[in-house]
Amino acid sequence: MEITFWQETSGKPVTILQVRGDLTANEPLEGEARKAFAGGARDMVLDLSHTPYISSAGLRAIHTIYMLLRSADPVDESSAVRDIARGTYKSPHLKLVKPSKNGLKALTTAGYDIFLELHNSLPEAVASFG
């Protein structure tokens, strides 16, 4: 698995984390996300368009990144639990791009599609931050 990250600055700064290869371990992705977060990143896109498979460890990494970003925003932190239960919540800080068929199955089975936006392209996901 190879992970690269960079920042797009067309308006609001958005950090892109691109995964190439199977997402079968949580630490590499979490480590890169924590580095970006320590550098000030508060809005991230996880590009899964080159990720054929997501294991439970990969799901754990995605959830950890989601929680890291959510905890940095008191408004999001307070409304997330309530609005997830209502089915009206989508994370304003983490978006996913084009998971494979197998990756999408893992994400939907775990219920991540309930609170994370899934986009068809990187530009679409970046633009969704406004």
Describe this structure in words.
By secondary structure, the chain is α/β, with parallel strands linked by helices. β2, α1 (27-38) and β3 (44-50) form a beta-alpha-beta unit. It has one domain (2-127): Transcription Regulator spoIIAA, CATH 3.30.750. The mean pLDDT is 94. α1 runs parallel beside α2. The longest helix is centred in the middle third of the chain and has 16 residues, at 56-71. It has helices spanning 27-38, 56-71, 74-86, 101-109, 122-127; strands at residues 2-8, 14-20, 44-50, 94-97, 117-119.
Summarize the topology.
Layout lengths: L1 E7 L5 E7 L6 H12 L5 E7 L5 H16 L2 H13 L7 E4 L3 H9 L7 E3 L2 H6 L3
Parallel strand pairs: 2-3, 3-4, 4-5
Antiparallel strand pairs: 1-2
Helix pairs in contact: 1-2
